[in-house]
């Protein structure tokens, strides 16, 4: 499909009883690109991801993924700072949840090999370190057949070597799929430099300003 993978048009959001968090944010993301969203705590980065995922409606403006409003759970895959694996499932079962039945065992083996965790398939999340769980959560999100990956500080708790490896996997996921893009939230300018094709800075605008982004 032609056109940008993601279009955000004059997006505004105000939580009930709170201040306006997003104040007229517009940008477009082409397929094959990684857009890093930078900004201080509380500026609305996670709010932006929720709106782009279609998990809540904006106060004003609109989001289009492949030219239409995002369908929650279908057009986007999300990964958070915490791994959010299902504790009552093994690692392999957690990955199986997002994979088609056909070829599933081979896909699981390949995904685990990619993050150096081939020997963890039959373990439960609580038997892994938090960094290992996060690597599993990353390959799970990359395996979801959604065009847009929404990543909310996913590598904040990893050591430098693991973070570099995971950043490589994100770049690979974008390079190997014909129509895929990433919106990646971080506080870290170093991470933005390592990953970003483009950067959006959110922040508190000067008093009286009505624009953002
Ligand atoms: N469900 C909610 N109800 C009311 N206010 C909310 C809700 N979620 C977030 N907020 C407020 O909206 C603002 C933006 O929150 P958001 O989580 O989007 O910021 P953030 O940039 O992701 O912050 P951080 O970097 O700390 O995760 C904050 O002031 C927060 O308190």
Structural overview:
The protein has 213 residues and is α/β, with parallel strands linked by helices. It has a domain at 6-75 and 146-201: Rossmann fold (3-Layer(aba) Sandwich). Helix content is 30%, strand content 23%. It contains six helices and eight strands; from the N terminus they run βββαββαααβαβαβ. The strands form two sheets. A five-stranded parallel sheet has the order 5-6-7-3-8, with helices on both faces. The protein has a three-stranded antiparallel sheet with strand order 2-1-4, covered by helices on one side. α4 (130-143) packs parallel to α5. It is globular and about 50 Å long. Residues 205-211 have low confidence and may be disordered. Bound molecules: adenosine-5'-triphosphate.
